[in-house]
Write a structure and sequence with these properties.
Shape: globular
Distance between the termini: 51 Å
Number of strands: 12
Number of helices: 11
Largest sheet: 8 strands, parallel, barrel
Oligomer: single chain
Length: about 375
Amino acid sequence: MPRQLHLSAALDSPGRFDAAHFTDLARLAERATLDFVTLDDSYTPEPGRLDALATFARLAPATSGLGLVPTVTTTHTEPFHTSIAVNTLDWVSEGRAGWLVGVSDTEAEARAFGRRGTAPAEELWAEAADAADAASRLWDSWEDDAEIRDAATGRFVDRAKLHHIDFEGPYFSVRGPSITPRPPQGRPVIAVTVAAADLAPDTGPGGRARVATAVRHADVVLLDAPDRATRLTSATELRLRGGEALRILARIPVALTTAAATADLLAEATEGGGGVDGFHLVPADPARDLAVLADHVVPALRERGLFRTGYTGRTLRDRLGLARPASRYAATPASATATTPDTSDTSAAGTPAAGTPTRSAATAEVTR
């Protein structure tokens, strides 16, 4: 039996601000039983888009099986706040959230915040790696059974199962624990977009830093490659460096305006090869192209045994065949006791590492 593909799509719709538009797109994607959808975002001060994560929080109750993976930039933001926001999306979607890691590299975005100037790409992606590491540790800072909710004793949590993460990186210092219980998936799915050029021997420091972030922290890589041969070479390199559990989807633009264009996409999906696990489609017209995908492409793939007939499992990790990770802090009782937070100290976000711009703090109240 052929191996089934993973399929996802971008819902990018510049200039659209109505909830009904994005809800309709999500329902089309869910009718096609896509693994997940993404939505681009940035801090560029132009009236072109909605906040991606907030938009997907709106879509969560309107869908039931579709994964929701918004872009969230790590530049000008706190990993403590990002971890809570993505965790919240995982809760409201009942385990279908992800995070497409982005960086902000323009002067306009820096001016909009007014905290710092722009930085080289290698520094931005090293900072993104720091943020992803801190966020995943914050997701682990509550053990799965930390919540007691015992009305008789007035205990909400078992404090021995909440942990300081004491994260110290080049860009952030985060003590923890999180103020939100552990996500349904343990850790929401992390995705990073990588270009084949980033893997070339002569790539610059920015490309190397982006790849390093992907292979260290990503569950899914969205791979931009100009042709099938380059895609195979790049996917092989990513898998060698990131491991067999890494899911690699080829990112391809589609404009399904004619029967020939639809046939070309179907041929691309059925021919196999390229070393990838599936495709991330970037539609020219999401409403039109997702409808063609749901009504024509996906049924044809199902007939060939290449795509699911319905959703199985409960979470996005289930759809992608990814294991639910255990909390790194759930160890022996002695170890748990050693990392139990001192409830007299409510600082969670900590302070920036030396030499980095001042960042806001957050407060963790373990009894909420």
